[in-house]
Write a structure and sequence with these properties.
The protein is an alpha+beta fold and 202 residues long. 23% of the residues lie in helices and 37% in strands. It has one domain. The longest helix has 15 residues.
Length: 202
């Protein structure tokens, strides 16, 4: 199986850091140089991780990887994002070829003037979504384990001498079908996997 990524999304992801405007300034003023690099290398990180998933094997339903990454990625208007979703995490590459996890609840809502994504479960994550051209959304967030306080994206305020914190996440959100989204999370700082994605449906 070979995963094909639409060329229009390749161009959109590669152009993220070249865009200008007030909406872009919001996330650009917060993102660390390290995370900006993770964002610009998203396409290559995903291709490498998908190859590992195809050749190394793993745990969970491999069909989910095929269905999620072969879908034609497209932009999503803000109003289509709000509300409750069912989410599952896909981890590719790294310690194993792939791991597809169970479904957990997540939600996108308006918080403090921004668009806030929150995923429940054993591995929780939360952060803001920022609009880009063509209905693409940039995600700056952080992960935390159940029982811990919710972590926030540290960005340029990472601990002294560190380029990132283990909890920081950066990614891009796109539509993949009617009432289905994919949040790509390149090069997780925890190094447990090489590429993560959150499939969202309702």
């Amino acid at each position: 199986m070979t995963i094909q990524v639409p060329h229009k999304f390749i161009l959109a992801a590669a152009a993220l850091l070249a865009l200008t405007g007030a909406a872009c300034a919001d996330w650009k003023s917060q993102i660390s140089d390290y995370d900006a690099g993770r964002l610009t290398s998203l396409e290559q990180a995903r291709a490498d991780a998908v190859h590992q998933a195809e050749t190394r094997g793993g745990t969970g339903d491999f069909r989910a990887i095929k269905e999620t990454f072969e879908a034609d990625a497209h932009g999503v208007p803000e109003q289509a994002l709000y509300g409750a979703w069912r989410c599952r995490q896909l981890k590719l590459g790294g310690m194993t070829g792939y791991a597809v996890f169970s479904w957990f609840p997540c939600r996108i809502s308006r918080v403090n003037g921004g668009l806030w994504f929150e995923k429940q479960g054993t591995q929780r994550m939360a952060g803001y979504l920022y609009p880009e051209q063509g209905g693409l959304w940039v995600y700056l967030g952080a992960q935390s384990a159940r029982g811990e306080p919710w972590h926030r994206y540290s960005g340029r305020y990472a601990s002294v001498g560190a380029v990132t914190t283990p909890d920081d996440q950066v990614g891009a959100l796109v539509g993949i079908a009617n009432n289905a989204l994919r949040l790509d999370l390149p090069t997780p700082a925890t190094q447990e996997s090489d590429f993560d994605a959150i499939e969202m449906v309702r």
